[in-house]
């Protein structure tokens, strides 16, 4: 985009690695020649060989405010429901030597995300804790919030909370137990095992073909008071298997193929590794 917020060029993929640099040079020149409005957006299915018709400018000059108006919500702010508790989850993949994999820019090896503990989840936990005499299962809504965010990779391969139109849930076994203590803390332990795959016969833009299994043991505590959850600290460790691409997919496992020619399809994955996750709220 240029300084006026107009699209310079829209590109889906590239002919080869050199085309990426050519595209950046091309966009830089278009930016210099067209700093304002009136710019038609160039569109490429693949740059530069597969060009689509330009999208003409709509003639609207964007007004970019220096700050949000009173009452406006900033799109960059975290959106959580009123009375919800926000938490953070971090996950790492580990190599055969027992050390965390170093390439943390990749979601295949490292993830960070936000979880939301709603008012309803907290009330369900308070009710269950109040009725229990000893050890009890924490409510499934809360347990699934933990488990449903503990996975490596992109959103498409979420084995529990993903797109059920294009994904098929194969296995769901979640048993997270709480042991009450006099100080208001619940000591958490248990296990989860969830797996999914792409649903057969669904046409997608990436030709995705995948399977994903996450098998974890959970430990930690939840600090309660009469109003709700004050703090959560949980850890999980176990095994994760993620396959993306291969025969029948547009994603080839052949390392010699041109990766930038099929960017929406991603890169081929065949991962089986030890993993650890941590969840914290305050």
What would you say about this model in short?
Helices cover 13% and strands 38% of the residues. It has helices at 17-33, 119-131, 140-147, and strands at 9-11, 41-46, 50-55, 85-94, 110-117, 136-137, 167-180, 185-198, 210-224, 229-244, 269-281. The longest helix is centred in the first third of the chain and has 17 residues, at 17-33.
Question: Beta fraction of the residues?
Answer: 35-45%
Structural class by helix and strand composition: mainly beta
Tally of strands: 11
Largest sheet: 8 strands, antiparallel
Describe this structure in words.
The protein has 282 residues and is mainly beta. The protein folds into two domains: 9-55, no CATH class; 85-281, no CATH class. The protein is 13% helix and 38% strand. It has three helices and eleven strands; from the N terminus they run βαββββαβαβββββ. It has helices at residues 17-33, 119-131, 140-147; strands at 9-11, 41-46, 50-55, 85-94, 110-117, 136-137, 167-180, 185-198, 210-224, 229-244, 269-281. It has an eight-stranded antiparallel β-sheet. The two termini are 39 Å apart.
Question: SSE layout and pairings?
Answer:
Layout: E1 9-11, H1 17-33, E2 41-46, E3 50-55, E4 85-94, E5 110-117, H2 119-131, E6 136-137, H3 140-147, E7 167-180, E8 185-198, E9 210-224, E10 229-244, E11 269-281
Parallel strand pairs: 1-2
Antiparallel strand pairs: 2-3, 4-5, 4-11, 6-7, 7-8, 8-9, 9-10, 10-11
């Amino acid at each position: 985009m240029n300084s006026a917020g107009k699209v310079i060029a829209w590109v889906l993929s590239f002919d080869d690695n050199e085309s990426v640099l050519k595209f950046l040079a091309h966009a830089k020149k278009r930016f210099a020649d067209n700093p304002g409005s009136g710019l038609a957006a160039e569109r490429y299915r693949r740059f530069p060989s597969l060009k689509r018709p330009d999208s003409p400018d709509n003639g609207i000059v964007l007004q970019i405010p220096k700050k949000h108006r009173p009452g406006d919500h900033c799109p960059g702010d975290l959106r959580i429901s009123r009375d919800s508790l926000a938490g953070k989850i971090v996950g790492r993949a580990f190599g055969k030597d027992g050390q965390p994999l170093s390439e943390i820019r990749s979601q295949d090896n490292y993830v960070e995300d936000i979880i939301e503990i709603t008012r309803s989840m907290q009330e369900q936990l308070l009710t269950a804790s109040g009725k229990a005499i000893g050890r009890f299962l924490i409510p499934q809504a809360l347990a699934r919030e933990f488990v449903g965010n503990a996975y490596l990779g992109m959103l498409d391969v979420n084995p529990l909370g993903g797109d059920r139109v294009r994904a098929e849930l194969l296995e769901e076994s979640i048993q997270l137990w709480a042991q009450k203590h006099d100080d208001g803390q619940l000591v958490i332990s248990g296990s989860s095992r969830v797996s999914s795959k792409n649903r057969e016969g669904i046409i997608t833009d990436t030709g995705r073909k995948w399977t994903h299994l996450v098998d974890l043991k959970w430990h930690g505590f939840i600090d309660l008071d009469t109003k709700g959850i004050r703090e959560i600290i949980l850890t999980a460790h176990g095994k994760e298997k993620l396959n993306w691409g291969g025969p029948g997919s547009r994603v080839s496992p052949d390392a010699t193929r041109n990766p930038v020619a099929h960017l929406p399809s991603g890169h081929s994955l065949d991962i089986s590794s030890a993993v650890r996750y941590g969840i914290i709220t305050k």
